[in-house]
Amino acid sequence: MTLGLFPSKGQVDAQAGQLSLQLMADFTRVQELKAWMDTQSDANLIALGYVQAEVNTLRSAITDLNTLASIYTGAVAQGVTPYDYRTFSKLLYGMGVL
C-alpha cells in the first residue's frame, strides 16, 4: 500500500515557479520599503506610533533584508564574487517576467 503524495512533473514545475516568483516579489517589496524608510525620519515613524527602540529594530531588520535582497540580485557580493541568485530561478518565473 502506498501512502502520501506523489506529485506530478507539472505540480513540481508549478511549485518551483510560484516560489521563484514569490521570492522575487518579496525582495522587490523589501527594496521598496527600504527606499521609503530611507525618506522617513525617526520622528516621522514615532508619529506613526512606534517608540524609538522599535524604530531602531525596524530599521535594522529592513536593512538586513535589503542586504539579502541585494545579494540575491547580485548587487552586493556574497564572499569574493557577486552572484545573481536569479540566474536560474528567473527561468522559472514564466513568460513576460524577465
Q: Name the shape in a single word.
A: elongated
The assigned structural class equals mainly alpha
Low-confidence stretches: none
Write down the overall mean pLDDT: 88
Tell me the span between the first and last alpha carbons: 44 Å
| Biggest pleated sheet | none
Q: Helix coverage percent of residues? A: 55-70%
In what range is the share of β-strand residues? under 5%
> What's the gyration radius in Å?
19 Å
Question: Secondary-structure element sequence?
Answer: HHHH
Number of strands: 0
**Discrete helix count:** 4
List the helices and strands and how they pair.
Layout: H1 9-37, H2 42-47, H3 52-73, H4 86-89
Helix pairs in contact: 1-3
Account of the 3D structure:
By secondary structure, this protein is mainly α. The chain has a domain at 28-92. It is built from 4 helices and no strands. The protein has helices spanning 9-37, 42-47, 52-73, 86-89. Helix 1 crosses helix 3 (52-73). The termini are far apart. The mean pLDDT is 88.
Descriptors:
98 residues, mainly alpha, 4 helices
What's the short version?
The chain is an all-alpha fold and 98 residues long. It is 62% helix and 0% strand.
